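so my prof wants the structure for this chain in the tokens format not the other one, which i didnt know existed until like an hour ago. anyway here's the sequence
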Amino acid sequence: METKNEIRIGDWVRLKSDLTKGYNVRGISASKYFLDCLTFDGKRDFFKIEEVELITDKDKIDYLENRKDELFRS
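here's what i got, hopefully its the right format
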């Protein structure tokens, strides 16, 4: 399954239904159909790849990257 912007481990994504939260991709299923994502409250979620979109806004990515240490301490 191909997407316009291929999602990779370490990328930031958001749900198409909720653009307010950022999720860090921690894993991708062998079928490339599911993503294993981590939120800033330490919660792991699994999403179908068609439910998310890659965050491409540079300012938003910079903000999330600057808070990444907080994410991985959870």
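also thought this was worth mentioning. The chain has a mean pLDDT of 89.
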